[in-house]
From TrEMBL:
This is L-fucose permease. It comes from Saccharicrinis fermentans DSM 9555 = JCM 21142. It comes from the Bacteria. The chain crosses the membrane at residues 13-31, 38-56, 100-123, 164-185, 206-228, 248-267, 272-293, 299-318, 330-349, 361-379. The keyword Ribonucleoprotein does not apply. The lineage of its organism: Bacteria, Pseudomonadati, Bacteroidota, Bacteroidia, Marinilabiliales.
Length: 388
């Protein structure tokens, strides 16, 4: 509507900032009680945040939407912090990274379904987007009279609200299912002092650098997926068309996640991580330097190389932390803060319109490129250290 790119990234800031806020409390909760209770509390917080979209739309307050997402993400922090180490604990240590890759293959499937909802039922029905000035490549919402603005705002916020309310109800149903299903209690219940645990984790070189690599990965992922629509719009495509390109990227991500999980049976995880990061460097360089549809295709192809990164970094970093797994998991979930900070910096670059000879949208992808450099270095470093 009338938000700048920079202000709109408060959505990412709240969404990924919520992970940082709640990761350590979630880890301490799971350690004291159980992974199952952590999952149930996470689902409760998630449903609360989603259902708060209803009053947020009624009040038409951007800050209320941001706050609702913040609470929703408290739930996600509990789910990430409890589910990931739970999956790692369910079998042999040697296959833990592959197991987590397989389990997380279902995450992008959910994201893909969400993108279909966004394209078919949200973006296609927004009145604000119908006031698009193709000559200037921007939405002229701010030029409308106040009565039209009010009517469009009321309509569009309802379109955005309804999927979240439906999602909140689905999550409540999932909470009931999880509550009645038996889960093996594999959490560490012995009292481990958080400061002592943190000191051990900070001395662990592979874990310590893994947190940095995870910050870089989440930042790269969110930047590539958030701004693919703006990249497409800069080429004269509609938001809906940009979202379809995002869906293709997610489809590639899903297929590549499944293939890379199979490859991990034969190739060292750190080595494969390094090569995939080099692939990401190559495709983002294409997105920066090629102005046109081939550049957009390079950006879409980046998802192929991002596919194995999150669970693989997670598995490598937690591979040798012993009793500190739960708190170590919290540190890696807190690394999701990269998705809160870096998109805002990228949006600031995009708001410049041009950077030298390049459109600012293209130039802004130098940030994810640098993130992939960090991940490639971590792959090489962790391979060297673990082989020693």
């Amino acid at each position: 509507m009338e938000l700048t790119n920079t202000k709109a990234t408060l959505i990412q800031f709240a969404f990924y900032g919520g992970y940082t806020t709640m990761a350590i409390p979630a880890a301490l909760f799971a350690q004291k009680y159980s992974y199952k209770k952590g999952v149930l509390l996470g689902l409760s917080l998630y449903a609360t945040g989603a259902l708060l979209f209803y009053p947020a739309a009624q009040l038409q307050m951007f800050g209320f939407f941001v706050g609702s997402l913040y609470i929703l993400t408290f739930g996600l922090a509990f789910l990430e912090t409890t589910c990931n180490p739970f999956i790692l604990s369910l079998g042999a240590k040697e296959t833990a990274t592959r197991r987590l890759n397989l389990a997380q293959s279902f995450n992008p499937m959910g994201s893909f379904l969400g993108m279909i909802v966004a394209a078919r039922f949200v973006l296609a029905n927004l009145n604000a987007d119908k006031h698009f000035d193709k000559a200037n490549n921007k939405i002229e919402f701010s030029t409308l009279n106040e009565a039209t603005k009010a009517m469009d705002r009321l309509h569009d916020l309802a379109v955005i609200r309804d999927p979240y309310v439906a999602l909140g109800l689905v999550v409540l149903a999932m909470l009931v299912v999880i509550a009645v299903v038996k889960m093996p209690d594999t959490a560490h219940h012995e009292q481990i002092h958080p400061l002592q645990s943190m000191k051990r984790l900070m001395k662990n070189k592979v874990y310590r650098t893994g947190v940095i690599a995870q910050i870089a990965y989440v930042a790269a992922q969110i930047m590539c997926w958030t701004f693919i629509i703006q990249y497409a719009e800069n080429l004269g495509l509609s938001k809906e068309a940009g979202q379809y390109h995002n869906m293709v990227a997610m489809g590639m991500f899903i297929l590549s996640r499944l293939v890379s999980t199979f490859i991990l049976k034969y190739v060292n995880a750190s080595k494969l991580l390094m090569w995939f990061a080099i692939g990401g460097i190559t495709t983002t360089a294409g997105a920066i330097l090629i102005v046109g549809l081939p550049g957009l295709y390079c950006l879409v192809a980046t998802s192929i190389f991002m596919s194995l990164m999150f669970p693989t970094i997670y598995g490598i970093a937690l591979g040798n932390v012993g009793q500190d797994t739960t708190l170590g998991s919290a540190g890696l979930v807190m690394a999701i803060v990269g998705g809160a900070i870096m998109p805002m910096l990228q949006a600031m670059i995009m708001d410049l319109k041009t950077v030298g000879p390049l459109p600012a949208v293209n130039a802004s992808f130098i940030l994810p490129l640098l993130c992939f450099v960090v991940i490639a270095l971590y792959g090489k470093y962790s391979y060297t250290i673990l082989n020693k």
